[in-house]
Structure formats: structure tokens, C-alpha cells
Amino acid sequence: MGAEEIISELGLEAHVEGGYYRRSYCSEKILGIKDGQALASSIYYLLTKKQSIGHFHRNKSDILHFHHGHGLIRYYLITAQGELSVVDMGSDIKQGQQFQLVVPGGTWKASELMDGEFGLISEVVVPEFRFEDMALAGSEEWGLWQENYPELGRFIKRM
Q1: Digit-coded pLDDT (tens) for 9-50
Q2: Which of the two ends of the chain, N or C, has the fewest CB atoms closer than 10 A to its terminal CB?
Q3: CA gyration radius for the chain?
Q4: pLDDT tens, position by position, 45-70
Q5: Strand pairing partners for 65?
Q6: Using an 8 Å Cβ cutoff, are 129 and 43 in contact?
Q7: How far apart are the C-alpha atoms of 53 and 31, rounded to whole Å?
Q8: Which residues lie below 8 Å from residue 83, measured CB to CB, with a gap of 6+?
Q9: pTM of the predicted model, to two decimals?
Q10: How far is the C-alpha of 58 from the C-alpha of 77, rounded, in Å?
Q11: Is 153 exposed, middle or buried (0-12, 13-18, 19+ CB in 10 A)?
């Protein structure tokens, strides 16, 4: 199955951060933290050769990522303390790739399809994902990262 078929079969649409997504679950249990926010939600998220980058953003909620066995997706993570890490999600665990990734709330993250026609993951967001709880990186962050993380230079230029 190709990327276009997956987009169609899963009913995915373009995401503001890049790639494609569709919410697949939202808990009926409410936390009571704010405005009846649900305990958790889940999405499918797809990167393709044409939409190969998920732009830097951060969420207030913790997010668990699950790789579905196609493509290699590289994650760039910058913690609230300013620590950069790079994690590859894929099926070659002998090469250090991971099937699961936990990204704590407040961490900046970006993703990039490194290999394959597409990369498909699911994300579980705790508590529920809401667009108002997400921030895309702006010029202030870009300038700081270019100074502090020269190893991101090639990636940042493509973004």
C-alpha cells in the first residue's frame, strides 16, 4: 500500500505542523483540569516523501509515539532545559531504532522522514490534545537554536 492509499483509507488530512493526521480516539473520561479536557486522545500521523517534515512545535501534554513498521522517522527533541537529542523511530532495533518514543510536555520536537515512501505512527496524548495547547516554533526559537545547536543547521535550513 502506498502513501496516497493510506491517506485515503485512514481519512487523513494535512496537519499544520506538516504531514497528515486524523484523530482516532478521544477518551470519554474527563479530567476536570480545564473545560472538560479528556483523559487522553490519539491520532494517526503520516510523513511522506512530499510532506517529509513535521515542523518544530511543543505541546503542553505528554505524547507517546508508536511506529507502525514503515519508513524511518528521525525526531529532533529539545527539552525545556535546552538539551538536544535525536531519536530514530523505525523497525531496525539492531541499529538503535525505536518502536516507541515518549516526549514529555514542554519539549520542542520536529520529525523528518529519512527513508521510505512514508512513515506512519500513532500518538497518544495525555491529557487530550488541543490545538490551543500547541505552539509552533517562531523566529526567536530559530535564532537561538542556530546559535546553540550547529548540528541542526542542515535540518533547520530545509525547514
Answers
A1: 999 999 999 999 999 999 999 987 667 889 999 999 999 999
A2: N
A3: 16
A4: 999 999 999 999 999 999 999 999 89
A5: 101, 123
A6: yes
A7: 32
A8: none
A9: 0.91
A10: 10
A11: exposed
Tens of pLDDT, residues 75-108: 999 998 889 999 999 999 999 999 999 999 999 9
Q: In what order do the strands lie in the sheet with 20-26?
A: 13-14, 20-26, 41-48, 118-126, 62-67, 100-103
pLDDT digits (tens, 9 = 90+) for 111-144: 999 999 999 999 999 999 999 999 999 888 888 8
Give the span between the Cα atoms of 78 and 85, in whole angstroms: 7
Peptide bond into 150 cis (omega under 30): no
The string of DSSP codes covering the chain is --HHHHHHHHT-EE-TTSSEEEEEEE-S-B--SSTT-BS-EEEEEEEESSS-EEEEEEESSEEEEEE-SSSEEEEEEE-TT--EEEEEESS-GGGT-BSEEEE-TT-EEEEEEEESSEEEEEEEEES---GGGEEE--HHHHHHHHHH-GGGHHHHHH-
